[in-house]
## 1
Amino acid sequence: MKKLDISNSGHYAYASICCITVGTLFPNVWNEDFNSQYVNNLCQHLNLNDRIKPVMITLATGQSTQSVNPYVTLLLEEPNLAGKTILVIQDMVLLAVNEGEYDARQRVLIREVASILNVPFELVEMYEYSLVKYLSQGVGSQSEKGLKETARRNKISKVKRYAAIGFATVAGGTLIGLTGGLAAPFIGIGVGTILGGASAVALGSTAGAAIVGSIFGVAGAGLTGYKMNKRVGQVEEFGFQSMMPYEVIEHQLHIAIAITGWLNDEDPESITKPWQSLAVSREQYALRYETKYLIELGQALDYILSIAVTVATQEALKYTVLSGLLSAVAWPAALLSIASVIDNPWSVCCRRSSEVGKQLAHVLLTKQHGKRPVTLVGFSLGARVIFYCLREMVEIGGGEGIIQDAVILGAPVTDSKKQWEKCSTIVAGRIVNGYCKADWLLRFLYRTLSMSTGVAGLVPVNCERVTNIDLSTIVSGHREYSDKLPVILRFIGLNTREVEVGEIASIMKKSNSMTPSECTCNPMHEQINISIRPSKSDMCLSSIKHPK
């Protein structure tokens, strides 16, 4: 692969920025092998002098106190990078996938360096998308009907890319300035034009086929093709359902898996419905597991809530409805008398969700999704699935570089510092604990489990690498996580699709404590954007950097 056409000092600055960032993001105690291998590959790729390599290794261990700022200044002075720092990011992506595997740590590094160089990550994602298209050209054989369908989809994809770039230019303001006019060729054939002839040839059909075959591996038609061959422990049902609005799944260099905590009905779409606003990747899946028990839990939650409201009214609580339950020394007798209605389905689902988490860990460790980074997002028991998945991956070993980010909302799991530190070591990027102090229902449900520690869904977790986000201004109880996901996801900094005006109005009506600080119409989609003003104590997902 041809190296970037900049001076030797430019290559040194490029390498220094990457190595300093690697040392900051990935503590050497957990990632020593990765850090060392990355330095070797980068130095070889940039043809750096052998005497420079030890310096880069020092930077990558996190032992240096150097800042990236002087190297960024030096890099920006390169004539061939004037207004086109995205070329550095493109080079990093190509280096990352060149061996047929896209390590989650590499993508997190690319995301951070893109931020340092003021390159919008949306543009990086569009580049990844076009790169997959380019590498996939000529891979496999198609019928005449298949070729026509591919041509139709490619045409639609070009239109979508044009619209996306046009919108980003308006919304971002500086996008075209940053790309130095690269948006125009990006709309056309895309990667070949952007990279230049030499790099495009280096990634020709043979190399492209090898890379695509390795990265996407046994995923075949996507995770929807995965089938659990036999019952695993207590798990009776386990599979994946595509969340994309079309039948044909387009492979991406990064995927997302969303996991719900309960179901409201038997409609197959109820698994994906809460996640309609999620837009972390163009290839997203919802985990389909133990639906029979999750439906029973959903019905029990509705029933216990209706009884609780009656109890609260009868006992004439002098606070906001149900809030008095939080400070009660003992739960109201009337509520405890019907506790069996919820305790059984809750305990069953808790046991099964932990087993489902372990099964998910084995799916990811065996690379059923290919060799690509994965973002996990879940609420309630879905968050519990993620927690046990991460824990299992750590205990088995060999799972580094698979999980990019993990977003855990309202989790009925321990807040043990030791357990969360263990889980955080397997996550390359950000691990988020979204909690609600006023979630009386979670407190009530969790009372029958071990109370030797606190509950992560109720309190912040005391772990340095965990981002704690208080959702009390958005949700007032456990049952609201499902309904208010569009607002929650945006509040913590995840990419979301535009939410319909009717949906936003409904969500805002239910929330008494949240006020939109901005509301602007988007004529392209005839929908609405909404920005929520977080409290000073809240932290946005996109602003978090890992400590050394």
## 2
Amino acid sequence: MPANIFAFLRTLCLSIALIALAVPALAASFEESVGKFATDDFSDTEEAIGEVASSGNALAFPIISALQDERLMFDADTKKVYIKQTDGKAIDAATGAAVDAIPDSASAVNLNNRLRRAIDAALGGLTLMSPDLSARLSAAQAVFKSHDEALLPTVETALAKETNRSAKQALSEARAAILLFKSDASEADKLAAVATVRSRGDQDALALLTEISGGDQPASVTKAATGAITSIQSSLTIWSGVQNAWYGLSLGSVLLLAAIGLAITFGVMGVINMAHGEMVMLGAYTTFVVQEVIRTRYPALFDYSLLIAVPLAFVVAGAIGVLIERTIIRFLYGRPLETLLATWGLSLILQQAVRTAFGPTNREVGNPSWMSGAFELGQITITYNRLWILCFTMAVFAILLAMLRYTALGLEMRAVTQNRRMAASMGIATSRVDALTFGLGSGIAGIAGVALSQIDNVSPNLGQSYIIDSFMVVVFGGVGNLWGTLVGTFTLGIANKFLEPVAGAVLGKIAILVLIILFIQKRPRGLFALKGRAVEA
């Protein structure tokens, strides 16, 4: 029995001695790895990245992150490496001890593109098992792009523990990317990896498969990769068309908001209102004022700022529209050239008034949280602000149609549009209808400004970007016809986005203009002809 106790104590002492000897050795190994950053040699830096990332040391992530942000400093004289923290303080990279100041002779560790890829891969490996889902997804994406073979064990460990479906898929794709470039991977594993990458189907997958198709791979793998490339290219072509169609709908919704008020005033009153763009601009500045008040006094209400701005912009722009009609427009009916010149001059006055009040520079209008960000749908990206603007535009269009169909004002407007003299003989006060119509059109332009403030610069020239396109839409769709305006905006928006990749932005617009001119030659009243005063004249 004493002999057994003696043997146990001897084993215990030997283990303690080995641990005591191993700890300084591990520490020295980590410090030596960190010290390689001080040589300022790209090869040594690459070795240091791999050794530090695989060390398991708590300082590994701060060191690699600092290197990526160019905050990892080294002193060539003392061979010391420091981490410059974001709060201005500094620590010793090897020990984590705080330092009073980084020496003046220290400089940032130099990087090249190869090292940046190694950093991305290292950070990916360090964050593959992070509790933060977004961090795990970003890490898996970084590993997929770098396909660093050294990270395969880490990826497989993370994949075995992962429970989230999207993260598990991302890790599977990262593992497949590594296996494709792993020289000793089996043919079956590589074929399965090709299928996994193929199912991803994006540009990164296409680039990866293109890279291995020309390399030293088994014939079956090369054949599978070639087939996957063809399939992905066909799929991306279709998705590109879908993306262009979405961009066209987005552009069309913006144009519809800007043009719908013009369609009403132009259709009912026959007025060429060159100041319509300034009503849009006034709506955008109303949004800016609302947000400034909320920021300074009621910051908790910022997410509701646009909901507050919409009725205010309608009232402000509508009231100014009624004032313009009562003081200027009503004296110029039947004189289109004078109306055009008067409203053009008025647009310059309004622009200068806004410059005087708010300055000539762009004003910041923020996005509420529910309009920020984007999401993926297949291989296209849809931003929330564009999606909400499309929904908002269709809601405004539906409300306007209901107002024209079911209200007394709508009935009077339709009557005046179809036959002004007959409507007047039936007791309709056409001058009052004109004022309210101009105010309605201007008010809708104002709420268009609220929407446009989320996707465009708020400046005195905001409305000028849309006035010409708005007139084109109204003439193309049919003067005074809201359904024609709807069809015209989306038709022109989608056509423009499909022409841009082929002819360029400028030539695309010129081509659209030429097509509209040719169309109007054949169909002067537009897509949907509507009898009204402007047509009769």
## 3
Amino acid sequence: MCSLALSTPSTSAPGASKDGPCSLALSTPSTSTPDASKDGPCSLEEVRHFQQADRIEHCAPIEGSEHHIVLYQLPYNPKGTETPVPQQHPRIELLEKVDFGFASAFEDSMTCRWARVCRMLDDTIFDSRKLEAVIRSYNPAIKHGDTQFKALHILLGKQCELNERNTFFGTTLPKIVKLARRLPELFPVLLPRLMAGSNLAVSMSQEQAACLLANAFLCTLPNPNEQMPGPTIRFSNPNFVALYGRGEPAALQKLKCLLNYLRRVCNRMPNGVLTYERRSLDKRGKLVWWNATSPTFSRERGPLRVSVGGSIDGPSADGLLQMIFANPRVGGGVIGAGCVQEEIRFVINPELLVARILFEELQRNEAYFVYGTEQYSAFSSYAASFRYRGNYNDTRSRDSSGRRRCYIVGLDALQVGSDPDQQYCEVAIRRELRKAYVGFKSALGDADTPVPGIATGNWGCGAFGGNVQLKALLQLMMACITKRPLLYFTWDDAELRDDLVAMYNVLTAHSVPVATLYDILVRYQTERNTNQDLFSFIRQQLAEL
């Protein structure tokens, strides 16, 4: 049976699903029972500012400015029931400079690509083969290519029972088409792109995001790389076609999550808003955190909670800034073979996929932020074992601007090559510190206001090959500098939990300056003993001071 939930969504409780219990872990479920009573060294209450986390603001209220483009009309009442009205102002100069390519779709109704899309979508689509033919008819990139639609045919053909197939093609798909065709109505101004080197935010309604994703599902969106000089691919292809060509089980499960989202928003459109922000450091700026005036480690300045259970997107992390271990190209392999931490988060919170449309590839001094996305699907397991587990009802409250209190930061780590030792060189360490700084530093800048904590873990230590001890220490250093509490998940690794807690206790008990730890890190590559791990090297060096 297909189990696509193609009919009316269930009214399950938060975290529950109609197919089974929800697993919020972004890793393989543990078969062990690690002793959570040893989690520490600080309490969860300290990290959450004694349960004030849900009331601490992560970002300023939404206001239009030269650095914040708002695609719906203000003022907007987030407590009302109406969806925000699309912005109607003329195409201002800033938007003209970052034209995404929709302009040509709207200007000539007789000859433009958009008119052809609409004509082809007028056809009755009764099965996956007809859907493939329609997509090929208006998407020039795949019209005559070797692109396959294997996942669509398996999921909407072989795995669906007749009644589910009839429901999708008779009810759900026409609603998706109707939503997609509202593109000119919902985007009367040009959609901006968040380019490398910019400090710029875009806010839109959840309805506008849903329209973009309906078009991505139907593969109508122009590929921005086609409009750029040179062979470099700087954006992800916004359409879902790369996912359709795959046939492995995890790809089908990701597609189920996306179809569940589209069914949900087509049946009942959410009326909140979302913010997508690119934050960049000036490459010329000298951020010398390792000088004599650098802060010292203390529990008061940077509380740390290390947990063997739970996950970055789980209940204990609600109200915190939740870290995505990102790919430089936002979303990584979500519309393809990838199915690890970033990709899973993008399919259970599909509004994150809009970031693939907006963001140019991240540079070494940049981070992305997304505020307000909802979780729509429950899931279990990880990678090849990933499974869609049915509908999920997100009950998180909204902030004063109407965004769900889900705050996400994406940071891409250094990709370690064939020589793992290179991650310990000073250039690599500085790169990671700058990357962490742009993601950890609060944008609100009020020294008297508590800074929300960050939920994180083994950043860049999976496919990117990073050393877990090094990456944990770099995050601790930046948490101390930015006064960010850390909730660190070790993915059921009790040994790492114990080692990290012990190292933190040494650093805080002796009030070790961040500058001192930095100096020790950059000497590790050349001065360590054979097979000496980083934590033992640090203890040895501190004992000799």
